[in-house]
Specification:
mainly beta, globular, 9-stranded mixed sheet, 48% strand, 1 helix, 8% helix
Length: 130
């Protein structure tokens, strides 16, 4: 089961997904910045909407554990399940299986900003103006 730090983690989205990692960002309004990231190293199975709100993390159900084991040949060290609002008529289920999970706090700006304070950074897609 995942334990999030204290905070207002209402809005969530996929910040970065590349071979070797999946990064989810969260905050009370992620239009301009987010303050929490879940960084999954070596993700092997991901069922997750690109944007969702108010997730309720839970232990994976036995059927989900079997599904992951059947898909990847084993149960990986990290298996996170959740229910969330993704804008549809009802909640959606999420399932992420990975080798490792790191929880990172700090302000990540989603727009160009030159003078960053200690601990602040830019989202991976933010580039300086031409």
């Amino acid at each position: 089961m995942i334990q999030l730090p204290e905070g207002s983690w209402w809005d969530w989205d996929i910040v970065d997904w590349a071979p070797g990692w999946l990064r989810l960002g969260a905050g009370h309004d992620i239009s301009y910045a987010h303050g929490l990231e879940l960084v999954f190293s070596d993700p092997v199975l991901v069922t997750c909407p690109s944007f969702f709100q108010d997730p309720v993390f839970r232990a994976p159900m036995p059927d989900e554990v079997r599904l992951v084991a059947r898909q990847v040949g084993e149960t990986p060290p990290v298996l996170i399940a959740f229910e969330a609002d993704a804008g549809g008529p009802g909640p959606v289920s999420g399932l992420i299986a990975a080798g490792q999970l790191d929880i990172v706090q700090g302000t990540v700006f989603r727009y160009w900003r030159q003078d960053l304070a200690a601990g602040e950074r830019l989202a991976p897609w933010v580039k300086p103006p031409a």
